[in-house]
Amino acid sequence: MTEKASDSAESFFDRLASKAERYDNGAAIRKEVPRSSHQEWTEPEDREDPVAILIKTSIGRLESLLPIRYRRMIESPFAFYRGAAAIMAADLANTPNTGIQLQLCGDCHLMNFGGFATPERKLVFDINDFDETFPGPWEWDIKRLATSFAIAGKWRKFSAKECKEFAWHVADSYKRHMLDYSKLSALQIWYADIDLAELIDLGKDEELKEFQQKRIKKAAESIAHEKEFAKMTYLDGVRARIKDDPPLIYHPSGNEASYTLREAKQVHKRYIESLPEDKQVLLSRYTMHDFAVKVVGVGSVGTLCGISLLMSATGEPIFLQFKEARKSVLESNVKNRGKYPHQGERIVMGQKLMQSAPDMFLGWTNDDKGKYFYIRQLRDAKIKPVIEIMKAENMADYAKACGWALARAHARSGDPSLLSGYIGNNNEFANAISKFSMLYAHQNELDYNKMVEAVKEGRLPISAEV
To answer: CA angle at residue 268 from 265 to 271, to 5 degrees?
Structure first.
């Protein structure tokens, strides 16, 4: 190396901040935004009516499905919370902000985590819903996740002390694992994942451990697409068709029949063009046989979501799930503008940034009517949390797992050293988050009661139970 090149290299490395320096920079932010300030929540006097926000977020959704959306949300304060990401996003904009931005999940609650198979057929634990993903203040994801444990805990009739502890474990686990990630290189962080089987082995409840291990074994053994094919289709002449199961699975008719199979195939063609070339070659061996609307989770009810059935020339099926991609609820509450005008691309790129092993068929598309979509496999050995059977110690373990997964996701687009420096080694941040969670859980209950009143007044239509 020449003397000039050597000097250039030295000046380059001199400009790089060490991990220790970045840690110190994070610690310095505490002077401007104390960690204890994150415990604060007071309802602003000019706060927008939560029911008005719900109505606003229903604009553009399928009118016939809105009663199902509201029926699901009215089941409990926890169900309401799952569908109220827009309400909390507006509230989080009024909370303390360290100025550290990274890619957010945007709807980070405990039911949006779980196990699934990677393209290499390994089962991992991770975040699995990114409809609202957007760059924003890192604290928002932690506050929404921790609060979801406080609310779910109360719904499960755990004590207030236990609910607060669940929320505390989210933030404490996030702190400890973010510190671990701060010691790794960027490439090591990118390779990191959370092995689901190993995570379950960490639990102390032998009964629940056995239950989860059976679920893993079943998920690993089943061939998802063939299993779904046998359950969800019938033969119509020579063509396989998706069975209707209204109001949750149905072929559009009347005013909703806006897509012919030909139009759907054009949307599908655009989706394939968004994929890497190797996946394009793979899917070129399949043709679309049918598609149907399929009502999905609480937050997405009313958006145009569904499933498409693809068949190979030799009769092998693939089910893909398409979901309408709308503007993130975070976008109007942060200062930065979106990088992707195509909302499907926003979701796909956010998921690829945050998730350890995105679905191999993850891509985006749009129709000619102004709607954006993203597409992935319908199911691939997915294992959802069953909180209805969890004891307090199981909820605490699950809170730790979610905090860990969130730290791993944030470490990919954020600076783990800076974040660890701000959080520090003591319990001040976790204590603040747990206090905030309990305060906001109360706010959520008040908002839920307003929704119940709006239903009684006829402002929000609800369907019969489905």
So the answer is: 160
